[in-house]
């Protein structure tokens, strides 16, 4: 390709949203040299804080997660949609700084958040032991000022009945050398009448301090608010023209829930905003894919306010004037040939340690030692990957020899402890090995006894879960080819909207994650059973 042709190709490229499909919320974007990094929330899933890498803002690859062991965070007992909220990634004085919140509850006006900071000389680590910061609120973020000082921001939670639980944006100095907070905290910004002010990010540009916050809550009323001040501690003036970005009042838009943004500047001075979105299956309907990450171009004239064209999330935006940099495509099939789980996989509430995730004992197989029941929050045995498209499937081959009904191994379409569909091998009372199907809708379990399949004498069983828009279907192969179970299951129960539960005005449950496809082994009797998975093939249709 000639230089002229290459330049034209670069200029014509577009960012197609979402850039991170499936459960990738609360993006914090950062540029270091020619590399762009995105950190996203993971809640009850390991590895915590997924990191994504790009050189052109168009093509992204997943580097895996930073919180890979309990030294950095212990998620045993973590509730649904608790855990790792809204990470913040910055770079200063040759070190990456990652701040993350561990939120333990959200009932009766309490959150019980705890914020931590880890640092590393390289995005791949090694990461330091965590510094315990304050627990006064969540969505904590670091700001490194031009004078060399660093400051921690967060929302300020107020538990008192009758008060605004979102009490404003708080700031406190962080001493990097001493690795602790110093001085007194103060409220920097109390938000706009939209309320639910959270997700702060602070920037220094054009002689101003620019405060970016999320408001309206992380659903249909979400927005990105901009305020500025000449002084660090304010007062902060809100953009008189309204939010930088929102999809409120525009149910016709493909990308909804636009909010929780962070800014990045390219090497050539172009500005972009990374933010979360949702793609409902119907207008203001279920977002089975969860909250995803999109990127918008920002026009920022000297002396003026930043502007996203139209103020709404676009499906496609002009890419920066940077050389194109694609990454190798992820293999469709994971043959489990490596000694570690691939970056596409996550594990529920416990890291993928060798005591239950074994890729070495039997080469080219994933051996999963059974864990707790679907409601167990200490040691479940679920290895899963995000659903990234409305039409997709996960296919596997499993070897499993159950001895009773307390031993189950199979494939699942999963959202949380209360909402899932599971096709599994187990042992019937008459001694046969059988395939059974079980669904849970907000904890109400539905068996399908008429669909039970006799799998006696079959060593290797093929299992497949298929997302077909609002429907989940299951297939099996006992050696004579694929057969479909004759039931269409509701995929929309695997959504944020379905999982959320408000009782007497108080949140009894939230839904902040997204649908997963996974390999699930349960050992309800604690007998030490395991299942071997020969491969896993994920396709988007």
UniProtKB/TrEMBL annotation:
Q: Which UniProt keywords apply?
A: Glycosidase, Hydrolase
Picking any one GO molecular function of the record gives: hydrolase activity
Q: Name one Pfam family in it.
A: Glyco_hydro_43
Instruction: Indicate the family of this protein.
Output: Belongs to the glycosyl hydrolase 43 family.
Q: Which InterPro entries match?
A: ConA-like_dom_sf, GH43_C2, Glyco_hydro_43, Glyco_hydro_beta-prop_sf, Glycosyl_Hydrlase_43
Residues in domain Beta-xylosidase C-terminal Concanavalin A-like? 333-539
Q: Does this entry carry the keyword Metal-binding?
A: no
User: What is the name listed in the Swiss-Prot or TrEMBL entry for this protein?
Assistant: Glycoside hydrolase family 43 protein
